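User: I'm putting together a teaching handout on how sequence relates to shape, and I'd like one worked example. Could you take TIGR01244 family phosphatase from Ensifer oleiphilus, show the sequence you're using, and then write out its predicted structure as C-alpha cells right after it?

Assistant: Happy to. First the sequence, then the C-alpha cells directly below it.
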Amino acid sequence: MEPKEISAKLSVSPQITPEDVAKAHDLGFRAIICNRPDGEGPDQPSYAEIEAAATNVGIETRYIPVAGGMVADTDTQAFATALRTLPGPVLAYCRTGTRSATLWSLAEAGSRPLPEILGATKAAGYDMGGVVRRIANGGKTPTDKADASYDIVIVGAGAAGIAVAASLMSRRPVLQIAIIDPADVHYYQPGWTMVGAGVFKPEKTVRTMGSVIPKGVHWIKAAVAAFEPKTNSVILDGCRVVGYRRLIVVPGLKLDWNRVEGLVQTLGRNGVTSNYRYDLAPYTWELVQGLKSGRALFTQPPMPIKCAGAPQKALYLSGDAWHRSGALKNIDIQFMNAGGVLFGIKEYVPALMEYVQKYDASLNFFHNLVAVDGPAKKAWFDVAKPDTPRERIEVEFDMMHVCPSQTAPDFIRVSPLADSAGWVDVDQATLRHKTFDNIWSLGDVMNAPNAKTAAAARMQAPVVAENIIADIGGKSAAAQYNGYGSCPLTVEKGKVVLAEFGYGGKLLPSFPRFLIDGTKPSRAAWLLKEMILPPIYWRGMLRGHEWLAKPEKITAA
C-alpha cells in the first residue's frame, strides 16, 4: 500500500487488504472510505473484511461504492459529507484510486479553484481531464454542448494574442475568431522600464482592451478554467464551454510574487518596488529621486522570466540618474542575480560591463531572493554557488527593485497542453503543439528556447498566422520562427545596447552595423526604444501591420 496525498485531509490508494489497515493506522490515518463495490474483482477483499480490520485498530470507515466511470452527483455529495464528518486524515480507495480522486475533485469543486484541484490530483498521479466540466460546474453534471463555437479561439489578449488575431484578420477577414481574456485594459509592458526611469508617463503604456481588439474579432470577457483538446473545447469559469476548430494559446505567464516571503506585504512601500507592475513603476522613479545615500538592491530570479534584461535595465537607469545628480558616490549598488552570468549572449557583455564599472555596481551571482522584511529594510538570499553548500545570507537595503519569479499560469501548468515543466509544448519552428495538431502557441507561455520578449511575440504572430492559414487550406506549415528576440538594454538615459538574437544565441541584427551596432551603446538605439517602438507596437503589431516582422518562409529541401 502506497497512499498518494491529495490534500491535508485525504490520501487515496488502489485496493487495500485487511493487512494494509494496520499499516494505515501506523501511518496515522483515522478513517477509511471504500469507493469500490463488493464483487468487482475475483480476489477483492469485501468491505466487511476491511471494516472488521479497521474496527480492531480503532479506524472509522464508510462504504460509498461507485461503479467504474459512473460517479453520480449523489455519490459526490455522500463523499463530501464523509470527508466533513470523519476524523482525519482519511484514506480513500477503489481499484486504482481514480474513483476516489474523482470524488474528491468533484466534492471540492465549490471551494477550491479548478487549477488547484487539477494540480493536486495530477501530482498524485491521477488525470481529471474527463471530469473538467463537472469540476468547473461546481461538481455537478453539466451539459456537454458548447455555448458558442468559432473557427479560431485565442486564449489571451496580451501582446501576442492581439497581434496574432490582427495578423489572421489581415489575411482572412471572413474567419470567425474569438479572443478570451477577462482584463479591462491592455498594457505596453516594455514601456514600464521607461516609467521607472521618469522617461514615460505611466498612462502612455495603457489602453482599454476594447480599443485594441481587432475589428471583427469577438471578445469573450472571461477567464479560462481548463482545456478539453480531445473535444476541441475551452472551459470558462462558470462552466461555459467554447468550441473551436483551431486554438491559439497565448495567456502570457504568471508573476509569482508570493514565492518570496513577505514581498507582497511590502511592495509599493518601505523602499521595495518593481517595474514589472504598472502601478509600481512610478514608485521606482520616486525612490530613485529620493535616494541620496545608502544601499540599492536589484534582484533577478532564476530563468525563465520575461524580458531577461529588465532587472539590470532598472539598475543602469537608476545608476545613471544618481550619476547625474551627484549622489552615486554615496550609493552602494548591488545586483543580486540567481543566475551565473550578467547576460546570456556573450557579445553584449563587454558593453554592459563598462556600465557596471561606471556605476560601481557589485555583481552577486547565484543569489536568489527568498524573503523580505520591508519595515526592517532587510532581505534574505539563498546563495547556491557551484560546488558550494547552499547558504542563506541577510542583506540590509535602503531601496530594492525586485523582479518576481515567473511560471506558466496555473490553468496551463495542470492542462494536457503542458510539458513536464508546465509550459505549452510546441515545435520550436512552426509553434504548433507537438500532440494536438489544431493547437498553436506563442508568446511567453510556450516552451520554445527563445527569450520571452515583446519583440519575440512580434515575430511569432505572423508565423502562427501563416501556418494556420496554410492548415486551413490543407497545406503543411508555410513559415518558421528562428527564435528571434530583442532586448534594448537601456544603459543610460539616451543610450541603448540593442541585443538581438535567435536560437542558440545567434546574433540577428535588424539594422546595418553602420546604423546601429547592437554590441555598443548608441543614441540611435535609444531613439528606437523611446520614439519608434511604441508606435510600431500600437499602430503596427496590434493592427496586423508586420513592420520588421515578415515571416520567414519554409523552403523545400
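A couple of points you could highlight for students: The chain has three domains: 4-136, 149-253+408-553, 256-405. Residues 256-405 form a domain with the FAD/NAD(P)-binding domain fold (CATH 3.50.50.60).
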